[in-house]
Amino acid sequence: MKLLAKTNRIYLTFSLVIYLLTAIAFYQIIRLVIYDEVENRLRVERRDFEAYVRAHNAWSNIPYFVENKINVTPVRGEVPPISLEIFTDTLILNRYDDELIPFRQLTFYESIQGKIHRVEIRKSLIQTYRLIEVITVAMLLFLGLLLVGNFWFQGKLSGRLWLPFYDTLSRLKRFDLSSVTALTLDKPEITEFRELNDALQKMADKMQQDYRSLKEFTENASHEMQTPLALINATVEQLIQNEQLTETQTHWIERIYQASRRISRLNQGLLLLAKIENRQFSDSQPVDLSALLSEKLSDMDEVLSFKQLSVNVQRTEPFEVQLPVSLADSLVMNLVNNAIKHNHPHGRIDLVSTKDQLCLSNTGGPLTSSPERLFERFKKESAGTDSVGLGLSIIRQIGDSYGLSISYQETAGIHCFRITKVVS
Amino acid sequence: MKVLVVEDEQGLAESITDYMVKDGYVCETAATFREAEEKIHLYTYDCVIVDLTLPDGNGFQIIEALKRLLVTTGVIIISARDALEDKLKGLEIGSDDYLTKPFHLSELNARVKSLLRRRQFGGHTEIRFQEIVVVPHTRNVFVNGQPAALSRKEYDLLLYFLSNVDVALTKASIAEHLWGDNIDSADSFDMVYSHIKNLRRKLLEKGAADYIQSIYGIGYKFSQP
């Protein structure tokens, strides 16, 4: 749920509850005030009534010509105390329009000509009820308007207030750690957002710097390693010029030599992987991979005929991809080397390419591990070979970095590498 | 032939020098940029082998200075960086070759020889070893005056041997010389063997002595029997 939607929802519920409570309280207060007023007036009339009875010692209906205003009835039986005063709500049928009309009624007892009478004075509430209705409707209307207005304003305001936040968020999403462009964030006037941006900026800069120094470290370490390796190789080469070497010594020297060559190849492989990851290659350009592959296969004719492999190329259309030239070369070289290395004598290599996909398959033994795992670094299908186990990782890394999907599967002794373009 | 080796790794410079001196070169070393600069201003060299990363400067600057002084000096870059940009830049400013570390001394030696041949005689020179004569610019091989029909790889192999006479060559260095760095060694060693067998057969057929000796566990050596 979006932040603004959430705050709006909370605000709306809260306001509705508050407004409803306010409306109820308001209604009650108005009713209370009006009843108080009516009751005060009824008390005044009671005093008028008592004064009249005292003066004339009798009771006449004349001053109360309005219907239902007063009702005087003699009391039989037990007499309640004179001081009693009871207010009640009552409904009385209107004679003219046959309607029940609300009245407030004051009941008290009065002695007229020595006899106790029950006196009921009434006041119509019809006016006050209308008043309450009008006030309530008006209030609801105004409160509703206020609610909608507030809601609208609040939405607008939040949108504006949170604008720097959303801006920061979208920039963060676009931020690429490995790119050279640093993260640039605005300095909004709201302190919290400014502090947030400052903190993020600092973090991003630090991250980028760490990433860069790690990258540089890997690169430098690999480079620095090449020189001592060159020294080992050169020394070994000098050592083997010695003619008095025994067989055991030769064996040891050979082992040193092989190991140092392996390290060197490992190093070059890792360096290449790091460079692809860091996108340290010059601009991509259109490369016809299928043409490059068949060219490389014909370059390897000697190895192919030595291992008695037959090559079958079916190219209908060029399979063009965007790659830096040197990486296209690495990719093709690794694919071809792989197809040759894991083949068996008298095997075959097939290259089938269309406009949208390229498939290089070779015969070979059945796989013992999952094909996906072979793309991982240092994963080798066969132990003890001279390979360092980086070839397929390099293939995959090139694919990942330049929008190519490279899959590998084995069915009935046919190993197939399929390259397709990833539609972005 | 005078060669200058500009390399800050003392051991490596020593190895290169030893190898070159054995082959009859006059070899000097410079471990720093300043030293190298001084030497190229004082003396003339036929070939300069330059490491790109030096403690106090860049190998490219030495090449540029060298090319200003004497254009005919051959330049071979040896670098730990295997970057296309570096190779292109090197060629652009006048270097003749680029070797990535680690390299084989025999390969470096072969490259130096090939470079010097090209530089000094425009490639129009013959390489002679006993009864074998190689004419590089036409890629012909004669044994006792008789032309020998060698395949492209056999020719390259012979030339590599002739550049490193009396030197034990590893199978790996031969394989890489013939097929480049990316060759997979397991297969290539067998291929090296079959090429050497063919070359030896062809030379023997034309009446040459058997110069190719195999050294157990290491590789091959081309020398007087």
Tell me the layout of helices and strands.
The complex is a heterodimer of chains A (424) and B (225).
Chain A: H1 3-56, E1 70-74, E2 86-93, E3 100-112, E4 115-124, H2 126-161, H3 163-174, H4 191-239, H5 247-277, E5 285-288, H6 289-299, H7 301-306, E6 310-315, E7 320-323, H8 325-341, E8 348-353, E9 357-363, H9 391-401, E10 404-411, E11 414-421
Parallel strand pairs in A: 6-8
Antiparallel strand pairs in A: 1-4, 2-3, 3-4, 5-7, 8-9, 9-11, 10-11
Chain B: E1 2-6, H1 10-22, E2 26-30, H2 33-42, E3 47-51, E4 53-54, E5 57-58, H3 59-69, E6 74-79, H4 84-92, E7 97-100, H5 105-121, E8 127-129, E9 132-135, E10 140-143, E11 146-148, H6 152-163, E12 168-170, H7 171-179, H8 185-205, E13 212-215, E14 219-222
Parallel strand pairs in B: 1-2, 1-3, 3-6, 6-7
Antiparallel strand pairs in B: 4-5, 8-9, 9-10, 10-11, 12-14, 13-14
Helix pairs in contact in B: 2-3, 6-8, 7-8
GO molecular function (chain A): phosphorelay sensor kinase activity
Keywords (chain A): Kinase, Membrane, Phosphoprotein, Transferase, Transmembrane, Transmembrane helix
InterPro entries (chain A): HATPase_C_sf (IPR036890), HATPase_dom (IPR003594), His_kinase_dom (IPR005467), HisK_dim/P_dom (IPR003661), HisK_dim/P_sf (IPR036097), TCS_sensor_his_kinase (IPR050428)
Q: In brief, what are we looking at here?
A:
The complex is a heterodimer of chains A (424) and B (225). Chain A is of the alpha+beta class.
